[in-house]
Structures are given as C-alpha cells and as structure tokens.
Amino acid sequence: MSGQSLTDRIAAAQHSMTGSAISKAVCKATTHEVSGPKKKHLDYLIHCTNELNVSIPHLADTLLERTASNSWIVVFKALITTHHLMMYGNERLMQYLASRNTLFNLNNFLDKAALQGYNMSTFIRRYSRYLNEKAMSYRLAAVDFTKMKRGAEGVMRTMNTEKLIKTLPTIQNQLDALLDFQPNSNELTNGVINTAFMLLFKDSIRLFAAYNEGVINMLEKYFDMKKNQCKEALEIYKTFLNRMTKLSEFLKVAERVGIDQGDSPDLTQAPSSLLEALEQHLASLEGRKLKDLSTSWNAPLNTLYNAVTCL
C-alpha cells in the first residue's frame, strides 16, 4: 500500500464531522502509508501538548487506540508518534503516560497479512517494550534521562551516593530495552522502521551520556562508600562495561545505514586495571585478598581519577 487507504480516508472524515481535531491528526499520522508519520501532523500534535485546554488523556488514549489495529503499519506509526511526542512534546504528556498502570500491551502482536508483517511485528513488540520502559523510568526517577542537564554541574554528576546507586540501574534497564530492538542493517527496509530507528538512535546517545556521567560520579565516590554500596557500585560498573559493547554494536548498525555519527560517544573503555582496583578495594573492605595490583594502581586516587575521566 503506497497511499492512504480507503479506511484512512473514512476515519479522517469521521473525525472531521465530529470536530475532533486531535483524533483526525492522530489518524493522519498513523495511516497505512509505508512511511514515517508526516512532520505537519507531528508538529500539530506537539503543539497540542502545549495547549492547556487540550486533554492529554484524550490525546494519549487516541494514540493507544490506534495500537489496537491489526495492521503493523498503523501500530508501528502509533508507537513512533507516541515516542516523538515523548521526546519533543510538553512534559505533561510523559507525566500522564508514566502515571498509567499499563501503557502498550503488544507482547503478542502479530500481523499475519504478509511476510513483511511477520518481520515488522517482531520490532513492534520490541519497540513497545522500550516505550513502556521509558515511561517506567520516568515514573521511578521523575525525570527523563534523555533530557536532563549534563556536564560537570549536571544532574548525574552532582547526585549523592545513595540516589546514584538507586538511579543507575533504572538507566540500565531503559538502555537494555532500547538495545533489545536489535535490527541489522538489512532489516531497516522501509520508512516506518527507519523512522523508529532514528528516534531510538537519538535516545541512545542522550541516554548513554546520562549513564556515563552517572558512572563517572559513582567511581569518583567509590573509595568513600560503605562496603554494601561498594558492592552494588562494582556490579553497576561491570554491567556498564557490558552495555558499552552492546551500544557499540547498535551504533555500527546506524553507521552502516548512513546515520551521521558526529554526535556518537567515544566508547573507548578505561583500562582493565581500573576494574582490578575497584575489586581490590572491595576485597579489602570484606577482609579478602586478591592478587597484587601493578604498582601504578597502588597510586593515589587522582591516578584512578584520570582513568575514570576517560569514560
């Protein structure tokens, strides 16, 4: 299907008759055309999120209703539209989505109408799980990790130890859900999935930036932490190293399909001796002994800090 279907036109006409401009815009953003939602419809919906007289629950519910379609195209575009509004719309939409007990329930979605439907249904299930996790992260942390202030005075760099150890696993869970999208370049075959992948790429860069800054802050505090905090922090850091590898694979796919890598993070890992130093410190707190570290890592904390700032 290359253009709007008869169903799309009838639905839009019905919304015009009932005077529901939001429903009409959502309908037009989620047509059966195999292309991403049109900018003019997305821009209008973003504008709606900023209007105080617009019902955010109505807007959200209208998008959720579109995911009840049997068409992979309509459902995928409803998810894309929701993601776009999460990123660029007023925060009150994210607040409402995060407040819901359930968001997208598409774990069993399958469009059997054509081979492409089978293939795209897999990505719809993965994408919906990511958006659910994105909303859950906001619910738990009361902040969108992709939008928070960054840098030396940013949220993650100035967070205290207790909150940091609680927050970093939430970021990890969101990044895990994003990386589970797992396309290869041969599967990015149409304008719908390509649009979703572009939004995920943008989120991945911003999400990792917050994650990285939080880990730097955690490592700077590590030698002043209590034993149980050190234990949790060490596991967080080990998980972080694994996520760097997965993110690198994700970014390689983006590079192969021609996405500009200018804003991609430097994923060069700190030397393995950093991990050894962290393990040695925890062992000393627990009264255990590990193999002796090289003399370079028996140096003062500022030596360790130099490795941390390479992250």
Automatic annotation (TrEMBL):
Localization = Cell membrane; Cytoplasmic vesicle, Clathrin-coated vesicle; Golgi apparatus; Membrane, Clathrin-coated pit
A GO BP term here is:
clathrin-dependent endocytosis
Statement: the UniProt record of this protein carries the keyword Cell division: no
| NADP is among the record's keywords | no
Instruction: Show the Pfam families listed in the entry.
Output: ANTH (PF07651)
Q: Name one GO molecular function term.
A: phosphatidylinositol-4,5-bisphosphate binding
Q: Which UniProt keywords apply?
A: Acetylation, Cell membrane, Coated pit, Cytoplasmic vesicle, Endocytosis, Golgi apparatus, Isopeptide bond, Membrane, Nucleus, Phosphoprotein, Ubl conjugation
What Gene Ontology cellular-component terms does the record carry?
A: clathrin-coated pit; clathrin-coated vesicle; extrinsic component of presynaptic endocytic zone membrane; Golgi apparatus; nucleus; synaptic vesicle
What residue stretches are annotated with the ENTH domain?
Answer: 14-145
Q: What does this protein do?
A: Cytoplasmic adapter protein that plays a critical role in clathrin-mediated endocytosis which is important in processes such as internalization of cell receptors, synaptic transmission or removal of apoptotic cells. Recruits AP-2 and attaches clathrin triskelions to the cytoplasmic side of plasma membrane leading to clathrin-coated vesicles (CCVs) assembly. Furthermore, regulates clathrin-coated vesicle size and maturation by directly sensing and driving membrane curvature.
Task: Please describe the quaternary structure of this protein.
Answer: Binds to clathrin; involves primarily the C-terminal sequences, but the full-length protein is required for full binding capacity. Binds phosphatidylinositol 4,5- bisphosphate. Interacts with PIMREG; this interaction may change the subcellular location into the nucleus. Interacts with AP2A1 (via its alpha-appendage domain). Interacts (via N-terminus) with VAMP2; VAMP3; VAMP7 and VAMP8 (Via N-terminus). Interacts with LC3/MAP1LC3A.
Family from the record = Belongs to the PICALM/SNAP91 family.
Report the protein name in the record.
Answer: Phosphatidylinositol-binding clathrin assembly protein
According to its UniProt entry, this protein's organism is Dicentrarchus labrax (European seabass)
Source species taxonomy = Eukaryota, Metazoa, Chordata, Craniata, Vertebrata
